[in-house]
Design a protein that fits this description.
This protein is an alpha/beta fold. The protein has 6 helices and 17 strands. It has helices spanning 19-30, 74-86, 151-162, 211-223, 278-281, 292-297; strands at 6-16, 33-38, 41-45, 55-59, 63-71, 91-97, 105-110, 116-121, 140-148, 165-172, 176-183, 191-195, 200-207, 227-234, 241-246, 252-256, 271-274. It has a 9-stranded mixed β-sheet with strand order 14-15-16-13-9-12-11-10-17. This is Glyoxalase/bleomycin resistance protein/dioxygenase superfamily protein. Keywords: Dioxygenase, Oxidoreductase.
Amino acid sequence: MTDRLITHLRYLALAMPNLDTELEFFTKYWGLTQVDRVDDTVYLAAEGSPEQFIVRLRKAEKRIDVIAFGAANRDDVHALHDSLAAKGVQIVHEPRELTQPGGGYGFRFFDLDGRTIEISSDVAVRAHRRIESREPIPVRLSHVVVNSANASALREWYEEHLGFALSDVLFSQKMGDLMYFMRCNEHHHSFAIAQGPHNSLHHASFEMRGIEEWMRGTGKILRSGARMVWGPGRHNAGDNTFAYFIDPAGNTLEYTTELAIIQDEDNWHPSRLDVDLTTTQDQWGTANEMNEYVARESFNDIDKGMFVAPPV
């Protein structure tokens, strides 16, 4: 098992011009709680998560602002910073005290494609609660998936530079490798990389308490008027349920549950799963067919934030 300096996924920060509409969707319908707002930047928490916030929204041109991961302590933050700097990775800011909700200590850098990545430790734990039976709101942020114009190279970069491990691969006989599922802890994936026509957000996934809560949440979002682009079903890779919706900003968001836990990493061997097999995409066969139209929805708009650090 690889000794990793990254412990888990903390939050996803997004920018979009329609901030108020997006904020209403995330709080009124998706089930997150606003915990802070500074001018046009809003912080949203999940009631079941100890993270101070799991989504940050900012009013600006549409882009991924930050993908943030946790580290165990300041020594690990410094060790990771020094390792990346020695390998020539472009640092956005050096390790320092953070001023966002919960504080903490961390630094930011650009990944191979130019996304801004944050690593932090010593973030205050938020008072959270147990999600009740049949309560259709997220427990936590499960995983973030990005599109990359060079997915294979990006996968290798995350393995070499950040210690991520490959869990499984989706491939097509005609198109080659399509998605790499990457883990930084025992969860099957906290991050994944899809081969796309450009760099962008593929989707962000939110964990529900269980199947009952996932189904009730799926129905709740359908009644909100949001369009479900794919689902409900159950993936093969990760063995998790899925229901994908399009938010007001045109991002794909997923409700999921029961993501696989890899208990014995030393004996785990990544599978190569053929997307042309129905059971690869949806074990149950309940979801609409994955086709070119559905795939295009998750290509999203070109992210113009590559190698451009956000102002906050």
